[in-house]
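Quick one, tokens below:
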């Protein structure tokens, strides 16, 4: 069973994907981490994330980079969003994601194009979303806990910019698959969102 979980930044899709993996006993891949590693590698190489050649070179990142705590930073998220518009970068990461999806027994993958491009055959497809305000508020609290000095407004602006870039790119834009079940988490707490997702998967399979 493949479960595809797509949605914008800070929608709760990562939390939901992890919980689904635990509930159904499946391995989980956070595909955003792969794009973040590419963005981080380009930065470490002194390259330009908007340059397709530099971005493709970043795809040769070492596996150890996936454990770098800086991958979770907002800054790296922005770099990831910039490198992810280049089709050769998406192609380079395609095989890696497919291989994970094809594991015996199944997998949960979360990202932006899992249900549309990476695993269109997935048995269950969720599109997790929430208002910009709700997502910014969550990200703000998370960042404050980590001691980061950013304002709510800065986070909202950054989310809007990233949403726009992810939705408008020519290749694999962020759109729900036609057969995806949409879960709006704006008014749900963590447990409610997880329950809704488990129910949706049960219904689909
Ligand atoms: O999900 P996360 O915020 O970690 O993703 C970082 C960026 O990587 C996203 O803003 C998006 O541009 C890109 N991404 C993507 N396709 C995916 C996962 C992430 O384009 N499957």
């Amino acid at each position: 069973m493949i479960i595809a979980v797509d949605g914008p930044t800070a929608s709760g899709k990562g939390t939901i994907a992890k919980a689904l993996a635990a509930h159904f006993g499946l391995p989980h891949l956070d595909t955003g981490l792969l794009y973040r590693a590419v963005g981080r590698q380009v930065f470490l190489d002194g390259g330009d994330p908007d340059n397709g050649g530099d971005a493709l070179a970043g795809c040769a990142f070492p596996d150890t980079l996936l454990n770098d705590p800086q991958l979770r930073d907002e800054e790296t998220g922005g770099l990831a969003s910039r490198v992810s518009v280049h089709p050769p970068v998406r192609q380079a990461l395609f095989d890696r994601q497919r291989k994970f999806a094809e594991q015996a027994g199944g997998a949960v993958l979360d990202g932006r194009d899992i249900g549309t491009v990476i695993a269109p055959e997935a048995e269950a497809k969720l599109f997790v979303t929430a208002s910009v305000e709700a997502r910014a508020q969550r990200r703000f609290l998370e960042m404050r806990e980590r001691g980061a000095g950013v304002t709510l407004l800065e986070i909202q602006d950054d989310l809007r910019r990233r949403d726009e870039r992810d939705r408008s790119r020519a290749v694999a834009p962020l759109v729900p698959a036609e057969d995806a079940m949409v879960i709006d988490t704006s008014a749900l707490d963590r447990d409610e969102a997880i329950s809704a997702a488990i129910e949706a998967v049960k219904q689909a399979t």
